[in-house]
């Protein structure tokens, strides 16, 4: 686990860096836990582009990740730490005592040969990779892969290097501080995994050239100023000039900056104690 910098033999190499994959223990994935990744190019069922700047990219298989962690009270042994092309974090192949194999998102401290377990009722050690309800985790512990609804599987904090801190457990709810700085309440019966997600250096990788982004399936993003007026509100004009508007707009004419993206009066507002901007909710 680390970042490799090449000699600056050309302009792209000078600005780029790569993951060195030194923490991987095996190169080939478990075939029974693979699915073919279908690609839409950002188009919906009618063929219209609904998500721009997507298309192409290298062919990839989906590793089936166990976000539910529902193998309760059955210990498992970590057999390998592997690469997943669909995420920045590493994944761990776990062999359970009943012979079943599953992939989980690996925490930084997890090693090959480590034993992990998931439980709802038993008292277990607070070791990285163990999964248990928030009400049974000590205050101050770093957790990830957190459920929002009991039994639905982990939905929060799944990116490389991320973790949330358990701040309190009172009444029906546990209070968590998320990586964004947001502080919110979650039902104390929800499961969470102990530890910090692996490969924290992933966010420091510099892609260096447009071609590497194309390999990831990300197509170019064109400035609105460079378009014609028919294509974008910023378009038109002779040569370089400002957008000619009081405020930036999206391609569809809506305000582009400083507009809250969260719906007003959303059902989960009552669970949020502090937004990531640091503003207390009343």
TrEMBL record:
Keywords: Ribonucleoprotein, Ribosomal protein, RNA-binding, rRNA-binding. It comes from the Bacteria. One of its GO terms (biological process) is cytoplasmic translation. Residues 42-118 form the Large ribosomal subunit protein uL2 RNA-binding domain. Part of the 50S ribosomal subunit. Forms a bridge to the 30S subunit in the 70S ribosome. Belongs to the universal ribosomal protein uL2 family. One of the primary rRNA binding proteins. Required for association of the 30S and 50S subunits to form the 70S ribosome, for tRNA binding and peptide bond formation. It has been suggested to have peptidyltransferase activity; this is somewhat controversial. Makes several contacts with the 16S rRNA in the 70S ribosome. This is Large ribosomal subunit protein uL2. The lineage of its organism: Bacteria, Candidatus Buchananiibacteriota.
């Amino acid at each position: 686990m680390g970042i490799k910098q090449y000699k600056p033999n050309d302009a792209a190499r000078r600005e780029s860096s790569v993951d060195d994959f030194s923490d991987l223990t095996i190169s080939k994935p478990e075939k029974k836990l693979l699915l073919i990744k279908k690609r839409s190019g950002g188009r919906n069922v009618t063929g219209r582009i609904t998500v721009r700047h997507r298309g192409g990219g290298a062919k990839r298989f989906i590793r089936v990740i166990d976000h539910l962690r529902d193998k309760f009270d059955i210990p498992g042994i970590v057999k390998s730490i592997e690469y997943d092309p669909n995420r920045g974090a590493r994944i761990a192949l776990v062999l359970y005592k009943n012979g079943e194999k599953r992939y989980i998102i690996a925490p930084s401290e997890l090693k090959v040969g480590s034993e992990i377990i998931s439980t709802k009722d038993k008292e277990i050690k607070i070791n990285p990779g163990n999964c248990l309800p928030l009400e049974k985790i000590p205050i101050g512990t770093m957790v990830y892969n957190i459920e929002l609804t009991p039994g639905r599987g982990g939905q929060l904090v799944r990116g490389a290097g991320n973790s949330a801190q358990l701040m309190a457990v009172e009444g029906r709810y546990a209070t968590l501080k998320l990586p964004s700085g947001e502080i919110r309440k979650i039902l104390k019966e929800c499961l969470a995994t102990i530890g910090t997600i692996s490969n924290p250096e992933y966010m420091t990788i510099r892609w260096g050239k447009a071609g590497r982004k194309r390999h990831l399936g990300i197509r170019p993003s064109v400035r609105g100023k460079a378009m014609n007026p028919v294509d974008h509100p910023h378009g038109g004009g002779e040569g370089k000039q400002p957008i000619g508007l009081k405020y930036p707009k999206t391609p569809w004419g809506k305000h582009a900056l400083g507009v809250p993206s969260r719906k007003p009066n959303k059902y989960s507002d009552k669970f949020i104690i502090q937004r990531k901007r640091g503003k207390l909710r009343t």
